[in-house]
Amino acid sequence: MKEINLLIKCLKSLIEDKEVPSVPPEEIANIEDFGEIYASLLEIRNVFIALGKGELTYPVKSKGYFPGAIKSWQASLRHLVWQTKAISSGDFSQRVAFLGEFSESFNSMTERLAMTIKELSNQNKEKEKREVELINAKEAAEAANISKSLFLANMSHEIRTPMNGIMGFLELLNMSNPSAEQKEYIREAKSASAVLLYVINDILDFSKIEAGKLTMVESRFKTRTAIEDAVSLHVHKAFEKNLELHSMINANVPEEVIGDAQRLRQVLNNLIGNAVKFTERGEISVTVDCIEEEDEIALLNFEIKDTGIGISQEDFQKLFHSFNQVDSSTTRKYGGAGLGLAISKELVALMGGDIEFESTLGEGSTFKFNVRLKIAKRAPDHSYVFKELAGVNILIVDDNPSNRKIAVSYLGGMGCKVFEAKDPGEAITTIISKVSTRDKIDIALIDYQMPGMSGFELATSLKAIPFAKDIKLILLTSAAQRGGAKEAEQLGFAGYLIKPIKRDDLLNCIAIVLGFKSEENTEPIVTKYVVQESLDNRKPKILLAEDNEINRKIVIAMLKTRDVTCDVVINGLEAYQAVKNKDYDIVLMDCQMPVMDGYKCTAKIREMEGSSKHTTIIAMTANVMEGDKEKCIQAGMDDYIGKPINFDDLFQIIESYIEKSRGGSEHFNFIANYIEGFIDRTGISRDDAEEIFIDYAKKLSYILQEVENYLANDDLENLEILAHKQKGTAGNLCITPIYDLVAELEEAVKKREKEECLRIYKEVQKLFH
Question: Is the peptide bond before 24 cis (omega within 30 degrees of 0)?
Answer without folding.
Answer: no
